[in-house]
Amino acid sequence: METKKSPPPSSHKIKKSFFSAAFFLLALSSFFFIDLKTRVKFLEIKNDKIDHRIIGLTDYHDQSLFLINDKELSEEIKKKNPYLKSLKIAKKFPSTLVLYPDFYQPVAALKVSAGYFILSEDGRILAKIKESNRDLTLINYYQKLNYYSYSAGDYLDLIDINLGISFSQNLNRAGLRVDILDIADRDMLVCNVGEKKIIFTAAKDIELQIYELNQIIRQFKIKGQDFKSIDLRFEKPVVKL
Q1: Which of 94, 109, 156, 206 is positioned for an S-S bond with 116, CB 3.0–4.6 A?
Q2: In this protein, which residues make up the domain named POTRA (predicted)?
Q3: Buried b / exposed e across 27-54, counting CB within 10 Å, b at 16+?
Q4: Looking at the DSSP assignment, which residues form a beta bridge with residue 180?
Q5: Is residue 137 part of a domain?
């Protein structure tokens, strides 16, 4: 009994298989080539004044630009850098990440149990240090916070401290540098400006107190007079000459 032999493959099928394999290899080669060329090789930081070195950027070297999520990457970098207020990221093909950072400015040093917290204007802890920084307003708080219970990057959710910072910054912008902010309690916050004292409270509208203070200071400047203390806690501010 004779066995039937299968017919040899046609030249058309051979050509089709060849072109399919060639196309697959070409596509695979193109993918690897593009992937290699679009990995992060360069970083550009766009900022007129770079106040702080941004740490952790080398972690993203050689990552594919196509796989990077701008918003997620921005949040990751901000977590590693407490001084970063905001960070916009853009991709510049073939292999560059462009960073547009905005940095917090330190405005106060809060005395805590075993050192100091360097704070931003919105109460974020920018750094933890052991020695005081005399260039910043020193905050003495009636309840000493635990140095080890907070980390750089945390926000202090304490209304009296945050109001104190805001009030002190208003004084600084008015040309009255606050050396020390003493917070005895929520009803008595004292800004020490050299020998002068300006007293305010968290129990009264802060914008009203700032307005009253600016009006008083303006009148003193017009008259060429000076004061020893201004107490804004009452319905009518009390001024001592």
Answers
A1: 109
A2: 56-99
A3: eeeeeeeeeeebbbeeeeeeeeeeeeeb
A4: 138, 192
A5: yes
Let me know if residue 47 belongs to a domain. Answer: yes
pLDDT at 87: 94
Residues 224, 120 share a domain: yes
Instruction: State how far the Cα of 117 lies from the Cα of 82, in Å rounded to an integer.
Output: 12
Q: Is the peptide bond before 7 cis (omega within 30 degrees of 0)?
A: no
The pairs formed by 80-88 with CB atoms below 8 angstroms and a separation of 24 or more are 80/55, 80/56, 81/52, 81/54, 81/55, 81/56, 82/124, 82/125, 82/126, 82/127, 82/152, 82/153, 83/51, 83/52, 83/126, 83/127, 84/52, 84/54, 85/120
Domain, as residue range, for 144: 108-240
Compute CA 193 distance to the chain's CA centroid, rounded to the nearest angstrom: 28
- Beta strand spans in the chain (E): 42-45, 84-92, 96-103, 108-112, 115-119, 125-129, 137-141, 180-185, 188-193, 196-200, 229-231, 238-240
Provide the whole-model pTM.
0.80
pLDDT at residue 47, rounded to an integer = 82
pLDDT > 90 fraction of the chain, expressed in percent and rounded: 63
Residue 17, amino acid: S
**Four-residue CA torsion sign, 15, 20, 24, 27:** positive
